[in-house]
């Protein structure tokens, strides 16, 4: 059976119609499927993760979780994910910060923190980049330096993130899992390649949006975190893991999953990593794959 679905991409609020099946409860909550295995072409789906619901939102679906067997994966900061999934936050696993945090019911299971000396190097490098702003992510919070009020406003009003303003992120009394650099003047893929030449194998660097470049620990990343969570859950067959992605930070996740899909608008790097590329643009392309797997 297909145990795991993971998605890269944007987060949305969710809702989903009741679906009736013979032999099952009248209500089937699609975002997270619990102990009851759902009949499908792929077998039973036990674990469904981020944006399974998000891609259904345009069609007016309501998505919650059946029970504590539902699990969720996301590259977003935990705080923002938790708010989106507030009704079911105790029923699902979270992978946040591009794989830097794995948590369940508010408890951090694993944290892949950036070593202090390397964090200092990265922050100093990002500060020196012309036109760049940046934020850091800790265990459950994001931090931004208050001197950059334009960026604070963008994060809060544009990205709807809860961020903590600090004078110096290097003085925050917790270890960091990610540094995210934002620069509208440089394509993220090019910015990432330039940073890789500077840091080599000291830290993982990847584009995570048109203007975002993420720096995470060498043991972090969506693919590594997905593997760790699969090991924890006893999922041993890669073909039982399904992933959808669209950007460079999804590549490791797409490679880790046995069944991986890049959306039509994905960056070329994601398309090359995925086993399948969805032909039609828009949320329907992902939705149709999900319906096929779930036989809806």
What does this structure look like?
There is one protein chain. With 296 residues, this protein is an alpha/beta fold. The protein has a 6-stranded mixed sheet with strand order 7-6-5-8-10-9, sandwiched between helices. It has a 4-stranded parallel sheet with strand order 1-11-12-13. A hairpin with a 2-residue loop joins strand 3 (101-104) and strand 4 (107-111). The chain has 8 helices and 13 strands. It starts with a strand and ends with a helix. Helices cover 26% and strands 19% of the residues. The longest helix is centred in the middle third of the chain and has 12 residues, at 116-127.
Helix and strand arrangement:
Blueprint: E1 4-7, H1 78-84, E2 93-96, E3 101-104, E4 107-111, H2 116-127, E5 133-137, E6 142-145, H3 149-158, E7 163-166, E8 178-182, H4 188-199, E9 204-207, E10 212-216, H5 222-233, E11 241-245, H6 251-256, E12 259-262, H7 268-273, E13 276-277, H8 283-294
Parallel strand pairs: 1-11, 6-7, 11-12, 12-13
Antiparallel strand pairs: 2-3, 3-4, 5-6, 5-8, 8-10, 9-10
């Amino acid at each position: 059976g297909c145990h795991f679905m993971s998605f890269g991409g944007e987060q949305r609020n969710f809702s989903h119609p009741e679906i009736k099946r013979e032999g099952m409860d009248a209500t089937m909550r699609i975002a997270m499927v619990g102990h009851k295995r759902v009949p499908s072409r792929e077998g039973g789906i036990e674990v469904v993760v981020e944006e399974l619901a998000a891609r259904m939102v345009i069609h007016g679906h309501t998505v919650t979780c059946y029970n504590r067997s539902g699990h969720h994966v996301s590259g977003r900061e935990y705080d923002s994910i938790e708010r989106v999934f507030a009704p079911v936050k105790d029923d699902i696993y979270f992978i946040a910060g591009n794989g830097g945090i794995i948590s369940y019911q508010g408890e951090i299971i694993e944290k892949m923190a950036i070593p202090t000396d390397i964090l200092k190097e990265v922050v100093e490098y990002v500060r020196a980049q012309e036109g760049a702003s940046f934020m850091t992510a800790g265990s459950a919070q994001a931090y931004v330096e208050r001197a950059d009020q334009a960026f604070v406003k963008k994060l809060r009003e544009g990205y709807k993130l809860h961020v903590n303003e600090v004078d110096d992120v290097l003085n925050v009394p917790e270890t960091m899992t990610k540094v995210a650099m934002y620069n509208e003047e440089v394509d993220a893929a090019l910015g990432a390649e330039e940073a890789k030449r500077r840091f080599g194998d000291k830290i993982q660097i990847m584009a995570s949006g048109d203007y975002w470049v993420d720096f995470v620990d060498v043991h972090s990343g969506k693919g590594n975190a997905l593997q760790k969570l699969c090991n924890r859950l006893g999922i041993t067959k890669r073909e039982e893991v399904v992933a959808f992605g669209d950007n460079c930070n999804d590549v490791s996740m797409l490679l880790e999953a046995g069944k991986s899909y890049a959306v039509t608008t994905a960056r070329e790097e994601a398309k090359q990593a995925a086993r399948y590329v969805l032909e039609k643009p828009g949320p329907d392309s992902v939705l149709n794959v999900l319906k096929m797997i779930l036989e809806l």
